[in-house]
Amino acid sequence: MEALKNLFGGSLRQFGMLFVLVALAIFFHLMTGGLVITPTNLMNLLNGNSYILVLAIGMVMVIVVGHIDLSVGSVAAFVGIVVAIAMRDWGIPWWAGILLGLALGAVCGAIQGVFVAYVGIPGFIVTLAGYMFFRGANQFVGKSLTVPVPKDFQYLGNGYLPEWGPDTGMNNSTLLLGLVAIAVLIFMQLQQRQALIKIKADVPPFWVTMVRIALVVIVGGWLTWMFGTGRPGSSFPVPGLILVLLVILYSFVTGRMVTGRHIYAVGGNRLAAELSGVNTKKVYFLVMLNMSVLAAFAGMMFVGRSTASGPFDGVGWELDAIAAVFIGGAAVSGGVGTVIGSMIGGLVMAVLNNGLQLMSAGSDVTQMIKGVVLLVAVALDVWQKRQGQASITGMFTRSKEIAAATPTETVLIEDQVSNPSESR
């Protein structure tokens, strides 16, 4: 057990949902006669759920600061129909359509952000109003019709990395992407070890580093093979590449930048954050603005995949995004949550959906099982806090905050850990 703790860098509970994800994939693979863990199904899984995972990236920051955004599905639908009409009727190119959609999402987020940050209305109420307004705006602008989008725009939600170069038995773009990813992860492991040695901190045994590198090579190589050897004309999906880039970007923002530290500080204890000089209104505004921009992008990805924008786009998306964040370890009271954890939570929901569909389970059974999974995940988090323990991802989040925080912020964070009941 001690060896496993060294290998995974802390308590195994931090990786509980990751183990659940792997176990679910194996279970459904066996129950469906080998239909789940295949190149084609993995591509469909990533293509069909990437827009929800993009929403989860923004939603985790909204939940960390103590709010909920119920408008994301409606904003996505509204942006999707406006962009589709603009490309059809105005003749603007696909890239201009994307810029238009992002700008429109920013306007929607800015309006809601003003009411949350500067008027002081709770995010739940503001975004509930946004949910109704933008849903109506989608139907008003589109006249409840379906509007197709150009083929170039469809690439955003249903494209694959191109083929080039010699015949290697794999898609060369996917092969190159996999090799680069493996090399970067190995470099990060070695750099982390050297950094610990440099500051004379506790360094894990060398065998731990080597095993981690071996796992990176095995898992990365297997994923590269799976995505690079699918049906002819397919490879690693473009939506998957977009998702990976966004995860890297937002993991850096939340874990390494001042803005990210302020988000966690405000979510953990707003009054204490204000006393330490954090502009809480600005944090609320930026978080709501960012959420709508990502919702706009997710909406355009979905329109590209479905080849058209319609009046029923975005229905229920906010619930899936919120569920992904909480299953991934975010705290109901705010202050705790990670981008990676939300991705794992979203993939758990995606594998559940996919596996149950392949087993021909009805939508009623699927919804009931998803509800039970969400309830159990949140109940486990609450139970652990009542036992005086950190949540599954909470300990990881706190350690990153403390490592990157200023002395004043460190005192605040440690006070939240020792007195969680007083942090809100």
Radius of gyration: 22 Å
**Overall residue-averaged pLDDT value:** 85
Q: Helix proportion of residues, in percent?
A: over 70%
Number of strands: 2
Strand content: under 5%
Strand order of the largest sheet: 1-2
Gap between N and C termini: 35 Å
Category from helices, strands and their pairing: mainly alpha
Structure annotation, total helices = 18
Q: Please mark out the parts with pLDDT under 50 across 5 or more consecutive residues, or reply none.
A: 389-424
Report the biggest beta sheet as strand number plus sense, adding barrel if it closes.
Answer: 2 strands, antiparallel
Per the principal axes of the C-alpha atoms, what is the gross shape?
globular
Q: What is the N-to-C order of secondary-structure elements (H for helix, E for strand)?
A: HHHHHHEHHHHHHHEHHHHH
Could you please describe the fold and organization of this structure?
This protein is mainly α and 424 residues long. 74% of the residues lie in helices and 1% in strands. Strands 1-2 form a two-stranded antiparallel sheet. Helix 2 runs parallel beside helix 15 and helix 14 crosses helix 15. It is globular. The chain starts with a helix and ends in a 6-residue tail after the last helix. The C terminus is likely disordered.
